[in-house]
């Protein structure tokens, strides 16, 4: 078991009350003869943080606790003049308090210790003067004597007073010629944290300059050309928020900035001026287009729900409006989970509170006795406390911030999935839905595990709180999340999900339809129920703000009409018949063909068992001569004739394995070639070389020492006349045509080197030769522009080594597969995931054929998928071992497969049955 150890910079704003503001930071020495820790009897070096409701001393020794003195517990703050401090020029601050708080002792995250003892702390300032900071402290101390709402109002008056004296420091401008468009006060919003500052919009960039030094950067700078989208957001049910998404160069990492301003007019002005700048080019996807993509299966249920959440102002950066996901499974007690059984699913036509008839009747009885405004449910389905209830093991610091340094009572924590489901089904005040983490397979259920070894206490029966207890059908957190994701993407949920969307985001969210659907919540949860700006009494306004923040907020209504149902694929009957045929064939030792009375899909023409070890790559060099090339683990290059069905050439290129090969064919578009030969192949080898072999004359032309480790993959751009090689040395290199036929020199031919964080294992170039995609051993995908070889974006698409990647024929999407058995389709323009599915057998190789995708797997099967991800043919068993490579002739009549079983097989294809004859 490990304990969560905090970073060296231990002070964060999460150690303060939610929304508390950090003002100043002083270098000090501290001592306290009264403190329980005798170490503080002598002067200790550290830093003093002045905040709106507390003072925090950060000891230089990271093993000693931070000491927080809450101003409401403070008796006096004064300048001290005594003999003991005369050597310090009488510049010592004395703070008397009734209690203080110790945090992060041993640099370990744990519940805070509240020391209920009258104590005096002395602070000697190393550089500042007490007379300079004392008035500000006393002003904040006086604020604590007021009611909470008036205290907050006084603090905000202090903040605005300080802000009004601060202008944006124009020395931070990147370009002296950029023109200032707008300057406004704004708060940077993070979960439970608000950091005030200045926003400056220019013709080239938008800047955020915080008033304190707590941000990662003194000034955040965003190039307008890097902004992907700008969205108007709600904050505390007020239209005062704005969220900006941009890519951070040079790594193209996606970043977000969530700002809130004083009023809607200021927000709208900032939004309009920002998007009107010529440098801003936003991604625009019509809402109906996304819905259509989801209907047709191009977008998964999970991704569509995240999209709809975003439309409804739900964001990961605001716990009061965190994305909400549905419970879809209701069986958490069985030993196995049959996703084909409709009885395991929750009724998505009803809100959580209406699932159990007896409880609903009791709630309705209470409803009838209420005075207006009535509500059926006294608790919401999403609120900050509910979000952190689920995520406390992953984000314990947020829960400590929300609950004043304490975790929840052990018996009330998220201890068992089955218990929580039972509670939301039967409890009269529990109606919470789920958070996206329950379906996020990328994080593998890490929120279910007490990874940091936090001491959450013991339950009433003496059991220590540890990991979340999972249902019997789940084999660990990864499997639990994966099975829930499979359930979310199941046929049953796909056909019923629109009903839940109607309840949460649609026409059943409020009004008469909500009453009919038993979907009514407390009136303050709804946008527009009350205008906070019209509330004059600050105490009333504060009470409403707290209730809105803590109780939960109904999402913004996205749909006012019935949400369309997900469409059933028109090929479903065909898929059933093909799957039936395939499953029969899969039991055979090797299928000669897959057929029924009406059609034949594949028919074997030739099989070559010529390699001594696994075949790594196959290609068709010439459609007219129908020649095939294969390279393998045995270091051999083999040439076959499809016409004669015979092996025509066998060449030992290396004593080490050959990983890949590509063919060059002369054309008018590529007058410059690597050699005078018009037809040659290039093989990548584990001895770090690229081997150029002339097919016509049967000789090795040259060998290029291209990398510092094994060459793992190759791809060729015909129109540009360049070759790209990937290697285990974590680079991809672009080689251009040499100017002569002399020996190829790396220094002359190397056009670009593209660096990666791990081994490069696969490559592909788009059909229009404008984009290059590279994949790595750690599951990351890199997209490069072929003009200047700039990185367009990176996507962590898999949790394991990539096996293959391909652009679709229109160069609009990238399909990838990996050791994690995942098949992904990613949009080239937006880098968003359009489709994701888990295959039964690990996919190894890929090939696009017009609108259809061929997938070879580790068990020797070849599958065909349509562009939207619907399986058309599964378990066509074509090899005894993994299908490592697939090639298709230009006319599509021949498919060539290479396998780990050492064979190369040529198949005759009949595409009539899918309309591609």
List the helices and strands and how they pair.
Layout: E1 22-31, E2 44-51, E3 54-59, E4 66-70, E5 74-80, E6 92-97, E7 100-103, E8 113-115, E9 119-125, H1 130-143, H2 148-164, E10 180-190, E11 193-202, E12 205-210, E13 220-223, E14 227-235, E15 238-248, E16 253-260, H3 264-275, H4 287-295, H5 301-311, H6 357-368, H7 384-391, H8 396-402, H9 417-426, H10 477-488, H11 491-504, H12 512-516, H13 538-551, H14 572-585, E17 593-595, E18 600-608, E19 615-622, E20 627-632, E21 636-641, E22 646-652, E23 658-665, E24 679-685, E25 689-694, E26 699-705, E27 711-717, E28 722-727, E29 731-736, H15 746-749, E30 750-755, E31 760-765, E32 771-776, E33 780-785, E34 791-796, E35 802-807, E36 813-818, E37 822-827, E38 833-838, E39 843-849, E40 852-857, E41 861-866, E42 871-877, E43 883-888, E44 894-899, E45 904-909
Antiparallel strand pairs: 1-2, 1-9, 2-3, 3-4, 4-7, 5-6, 6-9, 7-8, 10-11, 10-16, 11-12, 12-13, 14-15, 15-16, 17-18, 18-45, 19-20, 20-21, 21-22, 23-24, 24-25, 25-26, 27-28, 28-29, 29-30, 31-32, 32-33, 33-34, 35-36, 36-37, 37-38, 39-40, 40-41, 41-42, 43-44, 44-45
Helix pairs in contact: 2-13, 7-8
Features of the shown structure:
917 residues, alpha+beta, PH-domain like, Neurobeachin, Chain: A, domain 1, 4 domains, 7-stranded antiparallel beta sheet, 15 helices, 18% helix, globular
Brief summary:
The protein is α+β, with helices and mostly antiparallel strands.
